[in-house]
Amino acid sequence: MPLMRRMARTAVVAGTATAVSGGVSRRQSQRFQEKDAQAEAAAAPEAAPAAAAPQADMVTQLKELAELKDQGILTEEEFAAQKAKLLAG
């Protein structure tokens, strides 16, 4: 009987250790995910200046459309439609 008790005790200790280890792993994983989310949130304001590039591209496209209109390639209606399309997008 003492052998069975030792085996049962060992099984309980091993099971408890496994459960604790799993809990620690989950908590650490959650902490790392939270830190990653905070790092991404902190990096988001750096992305704002990059938004200026598409706006500069839009200005360039509007200038090109105006040149095409001035050259007579685009009519006033076509120019207005393309301009509205660019400004809406």
Structural overview:
The protein has 89 residues and is mainly alpha-helical. The chain has one domain (2-88). 88% of the residues lie in helices and 0% in strands. It contains 3 helices and no strands. The protein has helices at 2-47, 52-70, 76-88. Helix 2 packs antiparallel against helix 3. The longest helix has 46 residues, at 2-47. It is rod-shaped. The model has no long low-confidence stretch (mean pLDDT 79).
List the helices and strands and how they pair.
Blueprint: H1 2-47, H2 52-70, H3 76-88
Helix pairs in contact: 2-3
Question: What characteristics describe this protein?
Answer:
89 residues; 3 helices; 0% strand; rod-shaped; mainly alpha
Radius of gyration: 33 Å
Uncertain runs with pLDDT below 50, 5 residues or more?
Answer: none
- Overall structural class, as computed from helix and strand content, comes to mainly alpha
N-to-C span:
80 Å
Overall morphology = rod-shaped
Q: What's the total number of strands?
A: 0
Estimate percent helicity. over 70%
Largest sheet: none
Strand content: under 5%
Order of helices and strands: HHH
The count of helical stretches stands at 3
Question: What is the count of distinct domains?
Answer: 1
Mean pLDDT: 79
Outline of the structure:
The protein is mainly alpha-helical and about 90 residues long. It is built from three helices and no strands.
